[in-house]
Methyltransferase domain-containing protein (Amycolatopsis vastitatis), 304 residues
Amino acid sequence: MTDIAGEIDLFSFDPFSHHEFYLEVNRSLVERAIAGLPAGGHRTVVDLGCGTGAITELVVSALRARQLDATVVAVEPSPAALAEARRRLSDAGMPVRWLQGDAGELRSLGHDVDALFFCNAIHLIHDKAETVRMIAEAMAPGGVVAINSTFFSGCYVADTERFYRMWTIGAMRWLRREHPEVPVSRDRAEAMRWLSGAEYAAMLGEHGLDVEYCEHEQAEMTLESFQDIGRYRLFIEGALPGVPIPLGAQALYRGAADAFAQLNLTRVPRNWLQIIARRRPGSGTTWSSSGCRDATAPALDERR
Ligand SMILES: C[S@@+](CC[C@H](N)C(=O)[O-])C[C@H]1O[C@@H](n2cnc3c(N)ncnc32)[C@H](O)[C@@H]1O
């Protein structure tokens, strides 16, 4: 890990996480999941992979809007991101417990978590099933798990693949021209190996998490948002494996500008996969019928 708590990370996720469409699509998931919590009592709510706190902020505000009494626990492996999240939430009006680590940290919370958010991160995990197992183990019976990602099989809206091809080609062309000494690998990193909604739903079901909601929600992405995601270190590692982060950031910045100009675009629509599941009472691990059928299947609630 190259980042240090307290220092400003130039290649942070934070700028991307302030875009209005990003807040909207995540707010939609957060509010739906928090609405699924029963009123009364004290709740434990976890934001796993909290990054720089965008989701934590939405969770706190949804809990406050429902006047639910809760302890919010935010878990994140990157010390620099965690430090930024603490700053972002300093005036949130609800205490947040901050833990550095990954899903393994959930063991310290026992089996009593009432709601858990794992947003915009699962595509980064190598052993997704093991992470889902640890999440399921931490949940109280009936507890709500909300997971989303825009790196899944089905994320591209029809007719937008051309933009992504041009973006990648433009970034590589810039690198070859300006930095011919940098080898550009063709290997796809883990961030680029995408599962479908159906595969995620099946994986959750196998671990006793019954999917209640599985939707594609569309967001309208601007050039600035592609340039902001293009200077996030984990995105660069996935898109341009092996390329030094500062050069990858520049290449993706130029590539996005060129693709928008050449295709005369103002926005590129993109799907977010939004999943809400509930911990099955008892420790059953069977999974039968419900869930996303495939990446383009209608949402569960549309099929009822
Ligand atoms: C794209 S950011 C998303 C941050 C925040 N959840 C959001 O939706 O705005 C992905 C975050 O997942 C974290 N992450 C990566 N691997 C992880 C793991 N194994 N367990 C938990 N978090 C992880 C990264 O450090 C990063 O902060």
Q: What stands out?
A: The first helix runs from residue 20 to 35.
